[in-house]
Specification:
Distance between the termini: 21 Å
Number of helices: 6
Radius of gyration: 17 Å
Oligomer: single chain
CATH class: Alpha Beta
CATH topology: Maf protein
Shape: elongated
Number of domains: 1
Number of strands: 7
Helix content: 25-40%
CATH architecture: Alpha-Beta Complex
Length: 196
C-alpha cells in the first residue's frame, strides 16, 4: 500500500530565495502572492513586527484545504533599530557603514497555519561584518545586489564577502528560518515531509 504524498506547502511569498530554500529542503510547495501590506512603525518591537508580518502574509492568502500555509518576514536589526530595504544606493551605503565591523541580528517571523491550528514563531541569527573600507562599500553598492534587501545586503551573493561570522541558522539570513520550519513540520506532520 503506497503512502499518499503530503499536501504541498502554500508559500505566501514571491521571494525567489524562499522558493530556493524550500526546493533545497525537498519540500513540495506552491506559491501564492500575499495581499498583506506591511506597516513598519518605528516604535514597534522588531520581534513582534516580524511575527505579525508573517501572520498577516499567511492569513492574506486564505486557507488551502489540507495544505499548510507558510508566511515569513525577515528584518535586519542593529542597536534595536530595524533596517528595511534601502530606497537608493546612498541609503544602502549608509546601512552597510552602520553594519561595518559590528554584529547585527537577522530576525525572522514564521507563521505556519491550517484551518485547525496556527504556529507563530521567530528565529534570531547573529551576523558579524568585517570592517569595510570605502573600496569595499563602493564595490558592493555598485553591484546593485543591495536593491530590495533588508539591511542592504544579500549573504547568498557577493554580500558573503562582507561577512566575518554567522551564529545560528545561515538560511535564516538568506530569507527563511529552515531549522525552525523543519522542526515545526516534524512536530505537526511527523514523517509526512520526511522529518520527524
Amino acid at each position: 500500500m503506497s503512502v499518499p504524498p503530503p499536501p504541498p506547502i502554500v508559500l505566501a511569498s514571491i521571494s525567489p530565495q524562499r522558493r530556493a530554500i524550500l526546493e533545497q529542503l525537498g519540500l513540495p510547495f506552491t506559491v501564492v502572492s500575499p495581499s498583506f501590506e506591511e506597516h513598519d512603525s518605528p516604535d514597534t518591537d522588531p520581534v513582534e513586527l516580524v511575527r505579525e508580518h508573517a501572520r498577516g502574509k499567511a492569513a492574506s492568502v486564505g486557507s488551502h484545504g489540507e495544505s499548510p500555509v507558510l508566511g515569513v518576514d525577515t528584518a535586519v536589526v542593529v542597536d534595536g533599530r530595524s533596517l528595511g530595504k534601502p530606497a537608493g544606493a546612498g541609503e544602502a551605503e549608509e546601512m552597510l557603514e552602520l553594519l561595518s565591523g559590528r554584529t547585527h541580528e537577522v530576525l525572522s517571523g514564521l507563521c505556519l497555519r491550517t484551518l485547525a491550528w496556527e504556529e507563530l514563531r521567530h528565529e534570531v541569527t547573529r551576523v558579524r561584518f568585517r570592517s569595510l573600507t570605502p573600496r569595499d562599500l563602493g564595490r558592493y553598492v555598485a553591484c546593485g545586489e543591495w536593491d530590495g534587501r533588508a539591511g542592504g545586503y544579500a549573504i547568498q551573493g557577493l554580500g558573503a564577502s562582507l561577512v566575518e561570522r554567522v551564529e545560528g541558522d545561515y538560511l535564516n539570513v538568506v530569507g527563511l528560518p529552515a531549522t525552525l520550519l523543519v522542526r515545526l513540520l516534524s512536530e505537526r506532520f511527523p514523517g509526512a515531509y520526511g522529518f520527524g
